[in-house]
Specification:
The chain is an all-alpha fold. Helix content is about 80%, strand content about 0%.
Length: about 190
């Protein structure tokens, strides 16, 4: 069915399919290899899914999509370690070597902040350059939502429970959803 949408969409779909297999299936199982886990997710879920949506529209690769694709790569590079923090004990007992385990909790939170921060830098730069209208103000709201999740988590990282970390992760999902909506509104033609 992906081929019916167009060849650009099909290429993105196939790339995601290959990444999914490499991520989950032995002997590759990249989800258990620090660095590869975050790279596969940042490329697949972060960049390629955004690009696939654009490709489905039949448009050429032109602004704002290049900046938005790179920004979502960064967002997922920041978000993915947050998904691993509350699972660190379980991953360690399975002898997986995840990105969060390699960095430690504090390092994973720093990576989260840096990835999300870079994503917003790219979006704000694109908005200022080409799309600075009233709709762009939503980017500030989405950034505040992320800060409301990440700042307390980072501040208290050494003294929080696994349950707290899991709640923070779920709050990050809400910030992510808000970011998706705001980006669609900000950059719509």
């Amino acid at each position: 069915l992906a081929a019916l949408v167009g060849h650009k969409f099909l290429m993105a779909y196939l790339a995601c399919l290959i990444l999914s297999v490499l991520y989950s299936v032995p002997p590759f199982r990249l989800k258990a290899r620090a660095g590869w886990d975050v790279l596969v997710n940042s490329v697949g879920y972060g960049a390629l899914t955004i690009y696939a949506g654009w490709a489905a529209s039949g448009r050429d690769l032109a602004p704002p999509i290049v900046s938005v694709v790179i920004a979502f790569f960064c967002f997922f590079a920041g978000f993915y370690p947050l998904t691993q923090i509350y699972q660190m004990e379980e991953d360690s007992s399975r002898k997986d070597s995840t990105f969060a385990l390699a960095l430690g909790k504090r390092g994973a939170l720093i990576a989260g902040c840096v990835g999300v921060g870079l994503g917003f830098v790219l979006l704000f730069a694109e908005a200022v350059q080409r799309y600075w209208v009233w709709r762009s103000a939503g980017l500030g709201l989405a950034l505040l939502a992320w800060m409301a999740v990440l700042v307390p988590w980072y501040r208290d990282w050494s003294k929080v429970s696994v349950e707290y970390e899991q709640r923070r992760f779920y709050l990050a999902l809400y910030a992510w959803a808000l970011t998706d909506i705001v980006v669609a509104i900000t950059f719509m033609p």
